[in-house]
User: What shape does this take?
Amino acid sequence: MPKLDHIRSYLDKNESHLAIFSDPVTVNYLTGFYCDPHERQMFLFVYSDRSPLLFVPTIEVAHANAMLDMPVFGYLDSENPWQKLKTILPDTNSDKIFVEFNHLNITKFQGLQTVFEGHFENLTPFVQQMRLIKSQDEIDKMIVAGKFADKAVQAGFNSISLNVTETDIIAQIEFEMKKQGISKMSFDTMVLTGSNAADPHGLPGTNHIENNALLLFDLGVVSNGYTSDMTRTVAVGQPDQFKKDIYEICLEAQLTAQNFIKPGVTAAQIDTAARSVIEKAGYGDYFNHRLGHGLGMDVHEFPSIMAGNDLIIEEGMCFSVEPGIYIPGKVGVRIEDCGYVTKNGFEVFTETPKELLYF
Assistant: This one.
């Protein structure tokens, strides 16, 4: 597995012989095997000088053995996983052990400390860098996930009525995705009507769809292990000119940022390209989050497209562009596409029109 070879090279360079992976998404990225152990323990042990091994709950052993050419060990719910690891692992002595700090909770960390005697160092930045530049195969999978997101938002559009609630529309979206073979959304689907959309992370509820207002959809799916994420805001009835003006400012900001993206610019400059449009219009205080986030096997990945981030943008990076204007009690607009950086610019995964649509 080339990715595991990359880990081994990193270990050699940093004079360590062991890396421990606990994030199920990272394990999937490195091996092709995925499971969610919930409150149970799962670890991938990668050594610099011997074969890797996987430790999973016993109920996952058969699945892992069918997919992987490496030793797989399990533990029963009635067993102590840390004691079991001591009997399984070939060596628990190491001066330096790399682990994913961003994923370890205190239970996992303290448990590993009972097994290993060495010093733990953070592997998360290295994993983030590994996952930062997507291969063509990864991009192809995200293109498919983007097409399903387009289908999902269209199912939402088809459900718009003054007689239904936000959660009614969400149910229709997710039902349609299930029928098309999508078992999991990237995150909790958001459908927010009127002033409810003025909260960037508003909570859908039993609010009936408002007439003469804007309606916000934020959704994505997981397809072949890769995620999509998009936001569209549409008109129901005939919103007033103020709401339409806010929409047009947000759209200009989004298109300006997308057109600015190319290899060599920085993440901060992309954020500025969008934010300056909104600030010039007088609504800078109402754009209160970063412009974008990385996307891949996780719906939120490294990097953040935001002020202060001087990361140089490179071909193959994938991230969102999602400016928003949120005026409490009045209106909320967000327009989002995710895409990938090419040698000449930025190609988006989603194709749903962005001119203001009326329903």
Summary: The chain has a mean pLDDT of 96. The first strand starts at residue 18 and ends at 21. DSSP finds ten helices and 18 strands in the chain. Residues 136-158 form the longest helix (23 residues).
